[in-house]
Every structure is written in C-alpha cells, then in structure tokens.
Input
Amino acid sequence: MTPIFKFEGIYTPVVTPYHEDGSVNWDALAQVIDYLIKSGVHGLISGGSTGENYAQTVEERLELARFTREHSKLPLVVGTGAMRTPDSIALAEGAAKLGAESILLASPAYSVPTDRENALNALAIDKAADLPVMLYNYPHRTGTMMGEEFLDRVCRSRNFCGIKESSGDINRVHLLARDYPHIQLGCGMDDQALEFFAWGAPFWVCGGSNFLPEEHVALYNACVVEGNFSKGRRIMSAMLPLMRVLEQGGKFIQTIKHGVTMNGFDAGAMRAPLTGLNKDDKRALEQVVRVLKQKIADIQAEG
Output
C-alpha cells in the first residue's frame, strides 16, 4: 500500500518561547522557525510535548499552530495529544482548517485505554481531521502501548501512514518494519536513530534539532540519503553524549530550551510545574555541544 503522504527527513517539534509573564514570545518563535528553515530541517511539529502542549489550552495550541503555518511553508504536523477526546477532536479540526499537512496522534495519557478503546479514540480524531496521521507511541509517558490490535484497527483508514516510535524497545522497530511496512517508521528515540535508519525509517522527530538542526540533518543525510552507514556511525557516536545529557534527570524540555537560548534566541522559561536548568546542567550541555559541533564539522569536512 502506497502511503498517502511521505514523511521524510528531520521533523522538529518546535519549542514555545515565553516571556517572563508566561505569555508566548511570538518574535522569538518566528526567529526559531526562520533558523530551522535556514538550517535545512524538512518539517515542523507544532503542539508536541517539546512545545509544552500539556501546559497550554486548546485555543493557545491552535494559535501557535496557525502562527507556525503562516510563518513557514515546510510541511506542518499539528499535535492532537490530549487527555480528553473532545479536545483532541477540536485540535484535529483546527489543524485541517489552518491547512496543516498532517496531525500527530498520541494515546490519551493516564486513562490507559485498551487497544480497542485506543483505536476507537484514534479513529474519531482521524475522522475529524481527515488528514495524514503520524502516530506517536510513547508508552513511558502515556502508560499505553499501541499494540498490534490497535495498529490493525486503525490501519482500516489509509490516513494512518506514519509512526513516531518512542517506546525504546528495539523489537518494536523490528515488528513495525516487518509486519507494518505500510506505516512509515519514524525514529522517536534519539539514541536509536542509527538503528531506525538501518531498518528503513525515512524520518526522525528529534527535539535536539531545535538547536542543533544541521547536525541532525547530517546524520539523516549520511544514513538515508547517502546510504553511508560508516559515516553515520561516526556522526552518531559524536551525538551520543548529547543524548545522554538530554535524557538525564528528566530535564529534556529544559535542556532543549537552554540549547535554543545558547543559539541567541530567547526561549524563556518553562511553564509550571517545570523549572530551568541549574548552572552545572548548563555547563554540561555547553561543553557537550562544543565538542559535538567540532567533531561533526570535522567528519563533514572529510566527506
């Protein structure tokens, strides 16, 4: 079955910059989007967890998606993840109205639906948007694995044509690649990017590309475009310390936003309950980024 939409390349789940009072810093958001476009990412995701969707109202999320759509011609994926199905449906309908290319569809958190219940929820959201769907399987956050019954049920709609797989279980990569080839496999677990590409994944959703887009594109190009996995392994090796820093201590979004600020764009603080990095965390990230950039620049210069 040929997918109705091709997810290809680096998709950045865009951060949401805030002013000190917690309002959206639209100027900074525009600067981040412009930087990502210039740096060669292939698509943008508005309303993902990296964008702090859990701390925003449905109206705020649609306003952010609309701004992103108006500011960029890159393929736009709008996140519909929410605990309440009516909220997800409203986000899906809004995504269709503003001209998004696709929606990102996760399991509702905390309720822990069965595969059947989860599939019925997903199909209702799909019906509201009637757009290509990128599934988002992240059981560590949602408490729910998108199992085989779920996948079999949702695939009755051709709109389900991609999946951001973030379970961390390499056997899921094998399952999806072998048994569900009609669902485009996307990397959602950064430290497994090389393995995903080896199994044919055509896209990677990576929070770190908010502030290191060229380096993430370099790994994609080496593995997917050039098919040069020897070069890809060297780039991946250089990136692994970054991935350890991003995941340590549960400070993923805080680290991403500090990385954006390091590039000269005022990402601001997080909305409650999150708080910023301490000085030691900031120094650790800054050191890792310096070394990573130099190593990947050297690899790229060698061809």
